[in-house]
């Protein structure tokens, strides 16, 4: 009875407040006064209260009622931000959308928001909000989108949230929430996206999550959850993305979680990194990573034993290092029993000692002969040092195979050139085709260069993402320096957009997916890698498309790799036409430079050519940029007829324009861009493309 009262009382209280708020005494004038009193707008706007519908970030319906508050991300003229609780929400009963992400707000989330009976979208992400999530939010019966990540919210997840029967998207990640995930969460029958990562949640994963039959994305990583993972989660009919982390124990039935028949359709991430897992790795685990999208991350544990080379080479996205006692070898994986493993090692060591004793004299004689023979050959080790590490696909491929496959980097195998070097196509003896990027030599006079290059290259080798070209290995030698990448068949986005036939094949859906893929890759590099990695040369030349026209980001981190002694803040790199304008005077390279370059690429993908003239007109703030969206996008394709495809085009162009903001602080992060592109919701401007101007999207 007490728990029933605890759930119902806030909702009943909110309903009483709602009745008061909906009374006829609420007028447009009272709405304007409430907006003015909040202190969120500058005097430039508030001096004209009667024109509040024309204020920045305000949208009104035909009756003059405020239906949306949505400031652009970051600071802009006229918007001051402030305490969220300063706005009197009782005076805004017609509000449909409260998009306050990255709005510079602080304080607590007021319980008054619970009276907004018409509210469908509540976005308070990327602010400085503190305190608990009010239980009164459970009264927002029409809410479909609740986005509260990247704040400092504390307390438990209120069970009243589970009463939001229309909720499709729920993101409470990157806060400091505690307690258990509400067991009633299975009541959110329409939920498609659930993000609760990077909190301090405890207890077990509720079995009722297995009742969320429409769930597409589930992220519970970086918490303190325990117990087993409910098996029903993997049987959800449309689930595409699962992430667990830190809450799995050695006894967890992770390996039997997913039916084998679903490996190829499930975008599965099993992330068990940064635990204290020990023992060897069951071979069955790697089957989870053999699907096109699968990822298995076992790094930073205390695992030991041997991993078959053939397994490592077949996994497109498997991360197992560093583990201090884990090695790659062409043999089989050892038993998971540590005592048995220890006995095996002891036997091996004793045998080796006996053999060494028997062969010592013969070995010494043999070494003398080898030394005499090598004196007539070119030495492999020079005073400058040699570092050579190639991912041995079958345990036999060596440097000579690489050189032979390209006839010592003959021009006939060259498939592209760039500022950092030339790219060659090479077919290795085992039939595998790879791309070799032969780099220009830099800083060889620095005695620590080789070591720094090796360290940087091994960091880049650890990157595993479906939209990033995989780096297999590298060679650093006094005669040559090259990187070995997977070969991506269709070539660069730049070339495809400039070929009439291939550009026609890249329809609007595929183009939208290209932009989304690049956004997800950059978000991963900026926000999920430790340390974060800047690309520093995002351009259509560095976006490759595979046989299915899926985007793969290439050349990530090469600027840093070639100059490992420089900091990210001091070395400028990039391609003309994609470089952020602030680099002309600040010389400060950060992630917002990648964001700007992404904006250029996104527009280029939509309009079919480099948008240089349009970007210049933006900088001049001339009327030239007030063109119709339908005239801006690639005319080689018919305008999108499907409303969802058209919505994607509008959303991508709008996001690209935000990324091109001349003020770096006003650009969104790639995390925000990635999340925005993941969510399926109508754009803020839902009209035919021939009625929307680019200037309208910019504002």
UniProtKB/TrEMBL annotation:
Keywords: ATP-binding, Glycoprotein, Kinase, Leucine-rich repeat, Membrane, Nucleotide-binding, Phosphoprotein, Receptor, Repeat, Serine/threonine-protein kinase, Signal, Transferase, Transmembrane, Transmembrane helix
Its membrane topology: Single-pass type I membrane protein
GO terms for cellular component: membrane
Endpoints of the signal sequence: 1-28
GO BP, sorted A to Z: defense response; response to other organism
Assigned EC number: 2.7.11.1
Transmembrane segments: 345-368
Subcellular localization(s) per the UniProt record: Membrane
A GO molecular-function descriptor: protein serine/threonine kinase activity
Residue span, Protein kinase domain: 409-678
Keyword S-adenosyl-L-methionine: no
Amino-acid positions noted as binding ATP in the UniProt annotation, renumbered to this chain: 437
Principal place of residence: membrane
EC main group: transferase
Reactions this protein catalyses: L-threonyl-[protein] + ATP = O-phospho-L-threonyl-[protein] + ADP + H(+); L-seryl-[protein] + ATP = O-phospho-L-seryl-[protein] + ADP + H(+)
Annotated protein name in UniProt: non-specific serine/threonine protein kinase
Source organism (scientific name): Sesamum radiatum (Black benniseed)
């Amino acid at each position: 009875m007490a728990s029933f009262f605890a759930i119902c009382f806030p909702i009943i209280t909110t309903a009483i407040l709602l009745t008061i708020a909906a009374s006829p005494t609420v007028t447009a004038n009272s709405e304007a006064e409430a907006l003015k009193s909040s202190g969120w707008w500058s005097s430039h706007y508030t001096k004209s209260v009667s024109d509040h519908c024309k204020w920045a970030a305000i949208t009104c319906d035909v009756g003059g009622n405020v239906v949306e508050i949505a400031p652009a991300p970051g600071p802009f003229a006229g918007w001051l931000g402030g305490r969220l609780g300063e706005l009197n929400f009782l005076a805004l009963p017609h509000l449909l959308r409260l998009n306050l992400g990255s709005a510079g707000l602080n304080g607590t989330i007021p319980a008054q928001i619970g009276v907004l009976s018409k509210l469908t979208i509540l976005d308070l992400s990327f602010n400085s909000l503190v305190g608990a999530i009010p239980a009164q939010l459970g009264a927002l019966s029409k809410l479909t989108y609740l986005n509260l990540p990247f704040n400092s919210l504390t307390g438990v997840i209120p069970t009243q949230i589970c009463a939001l029967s229309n909720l499709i998207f729920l993101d409470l990640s990157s806060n400091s929430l505690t307690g258990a995930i509400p067991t009633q969460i299975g009541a959110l029958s329409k939920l498609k996206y659930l993000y609760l990562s990077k909190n301090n949640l405890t207890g077990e994963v509720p079995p009722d999550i297995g009742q969320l039959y429409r769930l597409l994305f589930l992220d519970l990583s970086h918490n303190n959850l325990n117990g087993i993972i409910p098996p029903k989660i993997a049987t959800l009919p449309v689930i595409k993305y699962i992430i667990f982390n830190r809450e799995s124990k050695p006894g967890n039935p992770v390996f039997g979680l997913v039916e084998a028949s679903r490996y190829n359709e499930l975008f599965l991430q099993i992330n068990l990194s940064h635990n204290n897992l020990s023992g060897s790795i069951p071979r069955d685990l790697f089957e989870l990573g053999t699907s096109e999208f699968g990822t298995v991350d076992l790094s930073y544990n205390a695992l030991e034993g041997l991993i078959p080379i053939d397994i490592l080479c077949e996994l497109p996205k498997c991360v197992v290092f560093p583990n201090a006692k884990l090695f790659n070898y062409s043999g089989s994986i050892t038993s998971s029993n540590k005592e048995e493993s220890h006995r095996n090692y002891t036997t091996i060591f004793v045998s080796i000692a006996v053999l060494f004793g028997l062969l010592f004299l013969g070995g010494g004689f043999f070494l003398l002969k080898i030394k005499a023979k090598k004196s007539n050959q070119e030495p492999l080790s020079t005073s400058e040092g040699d570092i050579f590490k190639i991912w041995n696909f079958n345990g036999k491929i060596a440097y000579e195979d690489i050189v032979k496959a390209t006839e010592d980097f003959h021009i006939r195998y060259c498939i592209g050139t760039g500022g950092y070097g030339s790219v060659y196509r090479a077919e290795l003896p085992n039939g595998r085709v790879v791309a070799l990027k032969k780099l220009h030599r830099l800083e060889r006079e620095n005695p620590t260069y080789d070591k720094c290059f090796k360290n940087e290259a091994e960091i880049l080798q650890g990157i595993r993402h479906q939209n990033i070209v995989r780096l297999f290995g590298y060679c650093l030698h006094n005669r040559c320096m090259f990187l070995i990448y997977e070969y991506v068949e269709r070539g660069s986005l730049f070339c495809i957009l400039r070929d009439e036939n291939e550009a026609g094949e890249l329809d609007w859906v595929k183009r939208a997916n290209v932009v989304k893929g690049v956004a997800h890759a950059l978000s991963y590099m900026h926000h999920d890698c430790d340390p974060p990695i800047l690309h520093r040369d995002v351009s259509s030349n560095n976006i490759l498309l595979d046989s299915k026209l899926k985007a793969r980001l290439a050349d990530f981190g090469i600027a840093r790799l070639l100059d490992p002694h420089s900091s990210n803040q001091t070395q400028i790199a990039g391609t003309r036409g994609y470089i952020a304008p602030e680099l002309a005077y600040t010389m400060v390279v950060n992630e917002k430079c990648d964001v700007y370059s992404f904006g250029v690429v996104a527009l280029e993908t939509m309009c079919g050519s480099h948008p240089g003239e349009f970007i210049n007109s933006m900088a001049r703030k001339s009327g030239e940029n007030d063109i119709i969206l339908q005239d801006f996008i690639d005319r080689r394709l018919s305008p999108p007829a499907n409303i969802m495809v058209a919505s994607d085009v509008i959303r991508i162009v709008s996001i690209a324009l935000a990324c091109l903001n001349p003020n770096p602080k006003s650009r969104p992060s790639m995390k925000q861009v990635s999340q925005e592109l993941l969510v399926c919701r109508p754009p803020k401007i839902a009209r035919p493309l021939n009625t929307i101007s680019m200037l309208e999207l910019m504002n």
